[in-house]
Design a protein that fits this description.
Length: 263
C-alpha cells in the first residue's frame, strides 16, 4: 500500500509539472526541456559507462550536444526534418535492428535521442501540442495496462518487454482514440488544435500509441543491453526520467512530422 501511494503521489507531481510547464510556456517550458535533456543524458551515460572522474568529460560533451540541439528550435524546418531522419536511422538501426548483442550506443545517438525531441517541444508553432501528446500517451498507458491485465494473453515482444501484450496494445489504442475524441469535442483550442478536424486527431491518437509503444520498447531494449532495471531513481516508484519520457521521445517527433506533412 505504501509503495502504491508513493507511486501515485510522485506520478501526480510529475504530471502536474509537465502540465504547468507546457501550459505556462516560455521559461518554464525551456527549463523543463533542458532539465529533461540533462538528466536524461546523465541517466543514459550512467547506464552505458557508469560514473567516474574519467567519464565526466563524456557526460559534459553529451550534455552540451543535447542542449545545442534544443537551440535548433529557432532554425528552419528543413534542418529539423533532417535531424529527425538522422535520429531514426541512428537509434533504430543500431539498437532494435542490430543483431550484435555487444553493440553499444554512441554519444551522437544519445544527443539526438534526447536533444531532438526537446528541441521540437520548445518549437514555437507547436504551442501546447506536446501536452496533447503526453495526455494521449497517458491514456494509452492506462488503457494498455487495464486491458492487458484483464485480457492479456498474447505477448507483444516477450524478448524485450515480457509484460506487454497485443490485447493491451490494441486496448490502449481504443482508449486513446475515445479519449482524444472527447478532447476534440471539449477543448481543441486549449491544445492549439482547433484548426484540425477529427480525422487529424484520430491519426495523431493512433500514431502516438504506435510510436509511443516503439519508444517504450526501445528504452526497454537499451536497459536490457546494459543490464539495468531502471534508468534512474528521480521519480519514486517510477524510476528515472528516461523511464517516464521514453514513449514521448519517439511519439512526439512522429507527431511533428505528421502535422507538418498533413497540415
Amino acid at each position: 500500500m505504501h509503495k502504491f501511494l508513493v507511486r501515485a503521489a510522485s506520478g501526480i507531481v510529475y504530471a502536474a509539472v509537465i502540465i504547468f510547464c507546457i501550459t505556462y510556456g516560455g521559461w518554464a517550458l525551456w527549463a523543463m526541456a533542458i532539465a529533461f535533456a540533462i538528466i536524461g543524458v546523465c541517466e543514459f551515460d550512467k547506464m552505458a559507462m557508469g560514473y567516474s572522474p574519467k567519464t565526466l568529460p563524456i557526460y559534459i560533451i553529451d550534455i552540451i550536444g543535447a542542449l545545442s540541439l534544443i537551440c535548433l528550435s529557432v532554425c528552419s524546418y528543413s534542418i529539423i526534418l533532417f535531424l529527425v531522419a538522422q535520429m531514426i536511422r541512428l537509434i533504430f538501426y543500431r539498437t532494435i535492428k542490430s543483431k550484435d548483442p555487444n553493440q553499444r550506443i554512441s554519444s551522437s545517438d544519445v544527443m539526438l535521442y534526447l536533444g531532438l525531441p526537446m528541441c521540437l517541444m520548445v518549437f514555437d508553432p507547436m504551442v501546447r501540442i506536446p501536452l496533447l501528446i503526453f495526455v494521449m500517451l497517458w491514456l494509452n498507458d492506462s488503457g494498455a495496462y487495464i486491458v492487458g491485465s484483464l485480457m492479456g494473453r498474447h505477448k507483444l515482444c516477450p524478448s524485450i518487454s515480457p509484460n506487454k501484450t497485443w490485447e493491451g496494445f490494441f486496448g490502449g489504442i481504443v482508449i486513446t482514440v475515445l479519449g482524444s475524441f472527447i478532447l476534440f469535442k471539449l477543448c481543441p483550442s486549449f491544445f492549439g488544435m482547433e484548426q484540425y478536424g477529427v480525422g487529424m486527431w484520430m491519426i495523431l491518437a493512433v500514431s502516438t500509441c504506435i510510436f509511443g509503444t516503439l519508444g517504450d520498447l526501445l528504452e526497454s531494449k537499451i536497459k536490457r543491453l546494459y543490464g539495468v532495471k531502471d534508468s534512474g531513481h528521480w521519480i519514486p516508484g517510477h524510476g528515472g526520467i528516461l523511464d517516464r519520457i521514453d514513449s514521448f521521445l519517439i511519439a512526439f517527433p512522429a507527431a511533428f512530422i505528421i502535422l507538418l506533412l498533413l497540415k
